[in-house]
Design brief:
Helix content is about 40%, strand content about 20%. By secondary structure, it is α/β, with parallel strands linked by helices.
């Protein structure tokens, strides 16, 4: 939602309006809610203003909690003696004045300070007149009033015109009907109160009843206020800007392996809130049910990070699993519960569980006093006991037998008082008559979420190799355990792309691409990848494009992994190559390049293994081109070289322009890649390269070159005669050798070119199209390490890419991301 900002100057005391409707078309409305920790001090409030500037628009509605711990201070004030109240109220006033003066101009400070003093005087009067109890909610409401008033003033001075709205003038609750919202009247009030041309700041947490008395919506009620307002405005989105960057698979304060859930299905999020998730208020999602309104949970401390989106999603999001716990529950037992009483309990106290016999309910401790007071009013006999809960939550998880079995195994040996599935099927509940230990919660989380990570796979390049990769993908996903969490989510050619956050059916990938792909550019791809909702994202580059390889830096900066058959990045300048490695390391991304050299042959793995094991490679040599391997294995003089070349082109053994093979550039790049993997720093130009295309033929068009390919024949005939006279053969060989002399120290020699080799040489007796790699090292001296096999072909190259994918996923299995927590409200 980033908006174009006007580059204009303020005039005569008026702030720059970054949301001028003259500059932008009117956009649909969103609601942004900021919690207490997001507004805790001047630095936080300035950050909130920046977030609104970056992510908001003037038509949006901002909902705020009280600043920092203000609500806690007001609750403490309610229980204070008259003498204590004077001190505590003074402390509150000092804190609020300091916040105001840190953020506003002299004029703004004077205005808000005067209003604050009047409020403090009113609270003081409640104590003097002994009217604290009857004005309890009015006292608690001041935190939100001060917060909205201050933010509106700051925005008015720095961003655009803004106004504070007291939610008691908007939200009307029906006290005769369990304080449900009078929707029609509230909607009318909000429509009238929302001022056009200004950014409207609404107080969270508070409302009024039909008698005009102040009511509160409970702890974390500002989230509920935000979704109520979104419902009344029929907004598109609600963003809860809080102190954590999303909803996690467990409480990250106690579960170090908790992972962010980027997307949650509506019903699952609602169940998490019902069970006491610290980020989601129990009622938060209810107002969104009748509209297609997405809810986002994001961190105001890390606004650039992707948070959690809650909405209607497909199978990938529905596979998410979360473990939640609650050690602050009360079980109420009674044989006198009637249908009417249970209806009241369900409506007023939000029970987490009601037993099948209707003789017990489990509720949160925050409702305990109210519930017990109600039962006494009804003259009902009851007993209570403290209980705790560990729950596994996921879409229809009660019907997923393997998850239920894992949960049971994790609880083996514990004294469970009850184990049930929720009525809605979205949770499995285990109750205990003691507090749940951190160790047990960790054990449950480890067991039930061990394979729940989601990896998004994007394939770029749908030519011969790309199509074969996709043909193999369905069977790979089915039979390789390491790929259990891999989802195909993107396909792209050079000009068209298909992205689907909910996944693309791998069995119909090309058909779906042909039917639904759209034109795209690299910026579109980057923007989509930047917002991907997966634990990890992998781009498989099966293009020969240097322009596409230029995106690797952007991929790594976004933490995206790359599997590459594209040689351009690995053979780029030393400066660029080192920058890529540094960026990859900094973001903990993976870059697998096994198919850049040797198709599926494990030459890259061999070199990396020797390097990582402490060996030192002294020579790399071999035949690295399947095309040139085929040509010289079949060139025996029975036909001119040009005819053999045209046969190879017709059979698909060469590039569309055979000069790309004959130039030696492909072999030169491959040798550079291997030398760099072996720890040497050199440029492409440091490798001497013999171009087998005569200078006169290098500038011809492809058609002209093919018509005049006989220009090659004399040169190759002469080379073949030389080899035949020596009872030898022709091979196009790559050689890299470490050197040393007393004057220059360590160095190297590197070249690729045509060589005459004895017929008994390791590079001579090859099956046409084979590659061969020879490594000499400290450990492999007298008997070098040789790797030989097919170095080209759609099956082996696609297979090599799949090998890289499996190895990458196995590496990612144990990867954890650090969770940055500012504290949970």
């Amino acid at each position: 939602m980033t908006q174009v900002q006007l580059q204009q100057q303020g005039v005569a005391g008026k702030p720059i309006n970054y949301f001028s409707s003259q500059q932008q078309p009117k956009l649909s409305c969103s609601v942004h809610k900021f919690g207490g920790s997001s507004l805790a001090n001047a630095q936080c409030i300035n950050r909130v203003v920046s977030i609104i500037k970056e992510h908001g628009k003037q038509e949006d509605l901002i909902v705020v909690s009280a600043n920092g711990k203000t609500t806690d201070q007001l609750f403490k004030l309610l229980d204070a003696t008259d003498e204590q109240a004077v001190t505590q109220l003074g402390d509150i006033e000092v804190e609020q004045i300091a916040l105001i003066s840190d953020l506003l101009s002299t004029k703004g400070t004077a205005t808000l300070s005067t209003q604050l003093s009047a409020d403090i005087e009113l609270i003081d009067r409640y104590f003097i007149d002994s009217k604290v109890a009857e004005n309890r909610n009015d006292i608690l409401s001041f935190g939100e009033v001060w917060s909205a008033r201050l933010l509106a003033a700051v925005i008015s001075e720095s961003l655009c015109p803004a106004t504070a709205i007291d939610a008691r003038d908007i939200l009307v609750l029906d006290s005769q009907n369990n304080f449900t919202l009078n929707e029609a009247l509230s909607q009318q009030n909000l429509t009238q109160a929302k001022q056009p041309g200004k950014l409207n700041i609404l107080t969270g947490y508070i409302a009024k009843d039909e008698l005009g008395d102040t009511q509160t919506l409970g702890r974390n009620g500002s989230d509920y206020s935000a979704t109520i307002a979104a419902h009344l405005l029929n907004a598109d989105n609600v963003t809860l800007w809080t102190d954590v960057d999303g909803v996690y698979s467990a409480d990250p304060r106690i579960i170090s392996t908790a992972r962010k859930l980027h997307r949650l299905e509506n019903s699952v999020a609602k169940e998490l809130g019902r069970l006491g998730n610290p980020v989601l208020h129990a009622k938060t999602l209810n107002p969104l049910a009748t509209h297609s309104i997405h809810l986002n949970v994001a961190s105001s401390f890390l606004p650039e990070d992707i948070g959690t989106e809650i909405g209607a999603f497909g199978e990938i999001a529905k596979s998410e699993i979360s473990v939640t716990h609650n050690n602050e529950l009360i079980k109420i037992n009674s044989q006198q519960f009637t249908t009417r009483v249970l209806e009241q309990i369900n409506a007023r106290f939000l029970p987490i569980y009601q037993c099948k016999k209707n003789t017990c309910v489990v509720i949160s401790q925050q409702f305990a006093d109210l519930a017990i007071h109600y039962l006494r009013e009804q003259d009902i006999d009851y007993s209570t006991q403290d209980v705790s809960l560990i729950a596994v939550v996921g879409y229809q998880i009660a019907n997923r037998g393997e998850i239920k079995a894992r949960f049971n195994r994790a609880l083996k040996g514990t004294d469970i008082s009850e184990f049930v599935g929720s009525d809605n099927g979205h949770s499995l509940l285990a109750f205990f008559e003691h507090q749940s230990s951190v160790e047990l919660i960790n054990q449950v989380h480890s067991q039930v979420t061990k394979d729940s990570r989601n990896i998004g796979l994007v394939i770029v390049g749908l030519g011969n190799i790309g199509q074969r990769f996709l043909e193999l993908l369905p069977s790979q996903l089915e039979k390789v355990d390491a790929l259990d969490n891999v989802h195909l989510v993107g396909l792209a050619s050079s000009t068209r792309a298909l992205f689907n956050t909910d996944g693309i059916d791998a069995t119909q990938a090309l058909e779906l691409f042909n039917q639904n792909s759209l034109q795209y550019d690299n910026q579109v791809l980057l923007e989509w990848l930047e917002q991907h909702p997966y634990d990890e994202s992998v781009v498989v580059d099966i293009t020969p494009s240097e322009a596409f390889s230029d995106l690797y830096q952007s991929f790594f900066q976004r933490g995206i992994h790359v599997i590459s058959a594209n040689k351009c990045a690995g053979a780029s300048s030393t400066e660029n190559y080192n920058a890529l490695l540094n960026s990859q390391k900094a973001s903990d991304s993976q870059w697998l390049v096994n198919t850049t050299v040797g198709a599926g042959l494990p030459i890259n793995y061999a070199i990396s293994d020797l390097q990582n094991s402490g060996d030192c490679i002294e020579e790399i040599s071999g035949i690295f081109s399947g095309t040139l391997s085929w040509l010289f294995a079949n060139f025996d003089g029975s036909q001119p070289f040009s005819q053999l070349l045209n046969d190879a082109l017709a059979q698909g053994y060469t590039e569309p322009d055979p000069r790309d093979d004959l130039s030696g550039l492909d072999v030169q790049r491959k040798l550079l890649i291997l030398a760099r993997l072996a720890g040497f720093e050199l440029e492409l130009d440091d490798i001497e390269c013999q171009n087998l295309v005569p200078a006169a033929a290098q500038q011809l068009t492809l058609r002209e070159f093919l018509q005049q390919s006989s220009l090659l024949d004399d040169f190759f005939a002469e080379k073949l005669k030389q080899a035949t006279d020596e009872n030898a053969c022709l091979r196009y060989v790559a050689r890299f050798t470490q050197t040393f002399d007393d004057a220059k120290g360590k160095g190297y020699k590197a070249k690729v070119g045509l060589e005459v080799l004895p017929k008994g040489h390791a590079f001579a007796n090859l099956t046409p199209c084979d590659n061969v790699f020879l490594l000499n090292s400290v450990w492999y001296q007298d008997n070098p390490l040789i790797i030989r096999g097919p170095g080209a072909g759609r099956d082996v190259t696609a297979g090599g890419l799949h090998s890289d994918l499996v190895n990458l996923c196995r590496t990612l299995e144990n990867k954890t991301k650090e969770v940055v927590i500012k504290g949970i409200n």
